[in-house]
């Protein structure tokens, strides 16, 4: 974030500045972003979403014609406007290598372009172009989701982020003000059991209407509140976690602590369309933002293929994104254009599961059930699969985590992974974050390698 203000040297100047100047730097950059992101294009897009001015067939037809006219690799596609979805299904799938090595041939270089990148949990980066229109549509849809849940644009906000906000010697003051955006940013990378009390105290003084960012970081605050019998001391209208898998016990703790609904958001940094949570725990597909295709890979388990209507600079077309979801269906194939899709859970990447000793697949939600009933005694946990029968379990526990809780947890883990699995339990002070600032709850090197 801060690199963009002046250049690479900004970090050095920023880190050597007193904290009040770091607030000023952050706010100055926030002012720059506000001017760029919240233009008349944003306001027009938000009005369109709020009005419900959306014709699915017309949008797909417009998108297909954009591909043919402006993206060279699609110049020869055939379009039947009387049966536009059949024409769409004839488009080839897109692989990550296509976007990485043929970016120019897959891009429309018009408007105010920039690179928009994602680091991914595997560390394999990908950058695509987006335009001022793409950015406006994306920001407007994010605010549309929030508005639907009672949070108007520019409400007082607390964001838990992986950005480099604080220097290594930060004195546990890990927040910085972004005044133009009515926002405080908290450095999730530096959140620890030692400074969580200070972070909560600052949060309570600030009294944000909404919280967003990494659920693992928000959960740490919620756990601190619950442990100290602090239950929704001010009004929070909604919590919007993103970027990490939202586990059921994490959702429950956050909702109990803040007394507010947790509205999960899913959209890739590669420009994918949106899926967002509902208050009943299910998910809504953002039809205005694109098309999802679902290919069955297990019982109620589907792998997603995405096409985005909100990244015209580098269109994301039938892209196998590698994430999986649970759908209440037995069909081999579904899509969000012609089918009513009852999407119940988002599991994340294809490799976000463990392989038990009986070759059974254990999903993130399945393994998370090992902590049911003892969630208040386990702060965080992580499963690492090194080979088909070798596992490491990292545990961050409370002081009252006793032998009874430990036996219960281990018994449940063995039940899921198999009696002949080699499981090493490590009790650690914190779970290390990935380069992108996220905590990866499951790291399956067997699936990653495959």
UniProtKB/TrEMBL annotation:
Q: Which domain of life is it from?
A: Bacteria
Q: Which SUPFAM superfamilies match?
A: Acetyl-CoA synthetase-like
Q: Which InterPro entries match?
A: ANL_N_sf, CapK_Type1_Caps_Biosynth
Q: What is this protein called?
A: Phenylacetate-CoA ligase
According to its UniProt entry, this protein's organism is: Salinicoccus roseus
């Amino acid at each position: 974030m801060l690199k963009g203000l002046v250049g690479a040297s900004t970090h050095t100047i920023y880190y050597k500045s007193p904290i009040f100047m770091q607030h000023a730097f952050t706010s100055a950059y926030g002012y720059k972003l506000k001017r760029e992101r919240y233009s008349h294009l944003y306001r027009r897009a938000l009005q369109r979403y709020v009005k419900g001015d959306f014709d699915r067939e017309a949008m797909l037809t417009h998108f297909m014609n954009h591909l043919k006219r402006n993206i060279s690799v699609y110049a020869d596609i055939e379009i039947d406007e009387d049966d536009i979805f059949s024409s769409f299904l004839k488009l080839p799938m897109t692989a990550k290598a296509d976007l990485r090595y043929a970016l120019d041939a897959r891009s429309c270089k018009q408007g105010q372009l920039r690179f928009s990148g994602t680091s991914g949990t595997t560390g394999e980066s990908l950058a695509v172009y987006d335009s001022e229109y793409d950015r406006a549509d994306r920001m407007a849809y994010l605010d549309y989701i929030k508005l639907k849940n009672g949070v108007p644009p520019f409400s007082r906000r607390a964001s838990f982020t992986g950005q480099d906000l604080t220097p290594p010697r930060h004195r546990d003051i890990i927040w910085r003000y972004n005044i133009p955006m009515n926002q405080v940013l908290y450095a999730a990378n530096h959140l620890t059991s030692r400074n969580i009390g200070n972070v909560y105290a600052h949060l309570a003084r600030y009294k944000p209407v909404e919280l967003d960012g990494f659920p693992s970081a928000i959960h740490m605050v919620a756990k601190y509140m619950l442990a100290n019998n602090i239950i929704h001391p001010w009004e929070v209208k909604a919590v919007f976690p993103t970027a990490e898998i939202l586990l059921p016990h994490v959702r429950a703790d956050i909702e109990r602590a803040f007394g507010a609904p947790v509205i999960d958001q899913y959209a890739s940094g590669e420009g994918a369309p949106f899926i967002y949570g509902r208050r009943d725990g299910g998910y809504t597909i953002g039809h205005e933002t694109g098309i999802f295709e679902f290919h069955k890979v297990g019982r109620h388990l589907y792998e997603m293929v995405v096409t985005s209507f909100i990244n015209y600079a580098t269109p994301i077309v039938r892209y196998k994104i590698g994430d999986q979801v649970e759908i209440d269906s037995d069909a081999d194939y579904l899509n969000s254009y012609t089918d009513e899709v009852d999407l119940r859970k988002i599991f994340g990447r294809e490799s976000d599961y463990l392989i038990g000793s009986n070759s059974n697949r254990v999903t993130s939600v399945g393994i998370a059930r090992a902590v049911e009933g003892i969630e208040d005694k386990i702060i965080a946990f992580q499963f690492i699969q090194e080979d088909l029968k070798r596992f490491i379990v990292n545990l961050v526990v409370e002081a009252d985590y006793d032998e009874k809780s430990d036996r219960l947890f281990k018994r449940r883990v063995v039940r899921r992974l198999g009696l002949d699995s080699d499981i090493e339990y490590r009790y650690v002070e914190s779970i290390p974050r990935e380069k992108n600032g996220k905590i990866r709850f499951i790291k399956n090197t067997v699936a990653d390698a495959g």
